[in-house]
Amino acid sequence: MLVAYGPDQRTVIAGETPFTQLQQWSRNHQLYCPNCRGVVHIRGGAEKRTQVHFAHQKGECAWSTEAESIRHAQGKLVLAQWLRQQYPQASISLEKRLPEPNRIADVFLQHTNRQQWAIEFQCAPLDIEEWKMRHQAYRKAGITDCWIIGNNRREKQEAFIEALLVTNRELLFLDPLVNPPWAWLRWPITRQQALERQRVPAAEQAAHPQSATIDGWVGRTGYGMTILGTLNEIQLDRQARLIHPTRVALEQRNTLLQEMETATAIDEQQLVDYLRPALNDATLRLFVIPLLHAYRLDPELARRYNYGRGLPDQPLRPGDQQRIDKAGLWLRGLVIHGYTQEKLQLVIREFPFAGPYAAFRGYAETLLALASQR
Predict the structure, then answer these.
(1) Which DSSP state fits 87?
(2) What DSSP letter does each residue of 276-299 carry, written as one string?
(3) 232 Cβ contact list (under 8 Å, min separation 6)
(4) How far apart are CA 55 and CA 43, in angstroms?
(5) What's the count of helices (H) and strands (E) in the chain, helices before strands?
(6) pTM of the predicted protein model
(7) According to the model, what pLDDT value does residue 48 have?
(8) Angle 366-371-374 (CA atoms, 0-180°, nearest 5)?
(9) Could you tell me the CA-to-CA distances from 231 to 180, 185, 266, 309 in Å, in that order?
(10) Which DSSP category does 165 fall into?
(11) Whose CB has fewer CB within 10 Å in the chain, the N or C terminal residue?
């Protein structure tokens, strides 16, 4: 355990109290279990290369459990500090004994409005029925239970982890043994969202290793997105939902994508809003918006031109040839601004493949292909 009572009956947290002071109290038998009030002793420390903690003599306390792992002990300390930074006005306790629902929460938080959260850091396998019992007991007691999983279980397909994902629509895996602590935020996405993300070039994903990547959903079916970063990049909002700036931006973009899928015509501002997280203002101004204006004037130009062949029932028009030549000159001229053919290809890959916007993307790809042949 990480929490005990000291000689003045005040809470003492292992790792937050000078080790020499803990040793003195331990020798004087002045450390007490917060549950059974029995004497506990200090264990671990730098010399033993284990997390500082308190322990009973074997079998003394009905509330005591098997020895916890270093990962679990350190994780509780990390999570408590993480929550204190976000909610300095809240009351935050480690290993809080809760008479109702008759459990000890790894980390317990009570807001000033009396809202209560129990943060459970689960590093060991957990039977699905046991998880359901704990989850329902917390909710019955009016306590929001938040489950965070040790990174040692990140690649495991366990029923309780799948149930967490189905219930909360998100998962957080934590490695508390590194500094700063690393976290993996995962949530389910639709097939369309997965396809859109897979269109991001591999080189671009490699250049941003902390961006969101397609990852296996912990379950038998479905798609998942994972963000790897530090724990401090993530916040737990007032609804006990996990917030990460990258996830917020992606979800806003996905909302736009759904609207674009059912649109009847291209909306310039909607397209700009969708592309802005991926493209800078110069790219939008110099390339995307002029190209969109040209497309709106004659959306059938590339189809009629048909790579210089015209249509079977409609020979190539001289005017179309002139316009294609002019478009090619414009595209090749963008190189003076740093937009090579390869860079323009990457830009076009960001265009949405949805509703009427898909035809615009095809138009842009065709014009670029024609320009590269000259």
Answers:
(1) -
(2) TTTS-HHHIIIIIHHHHHHHHH-T
(3) 82, 85, 180
(4) 7
(5) 14, 14
(6) 0.68
(7) 60
(8) 135
(9) 8, 9, 39, 57
(10) H
(11) C
Find the mean pLDDT for residues 172-196.
Answer: 86
Q: Is the pLDDT of residue 7 over 50?
A: yes
Q: What is the pLDDT of residues 306-316, one digit of tens each?
A: 988 988 888 89
Torsion of CA 195, 197, 202, 206, to 10 degrees: -150
- The whole-angstrom separation of Cα 279 and Cα 352 is 13
Quote the CA–CA distance of 43 and 223 in Å, as a whole number: 44
DSSP symbol at 123: -
Query: What ranges do the domains of the chain cover?
Result: 3-55, 70-242, 263-372
pLDDT at 62 over 60: no
Region 310-338: what's the mean pLDDT? 92
Over range 173-185, report the average pLDDT. 93
Dihedral sign for Cα atoms in the order 328, 330, 333, 334: negative
pLDDT at 66 over 50: no
DSSP state of 68: P
Phi, psi at 277, each rounded to 5°: -65, -25
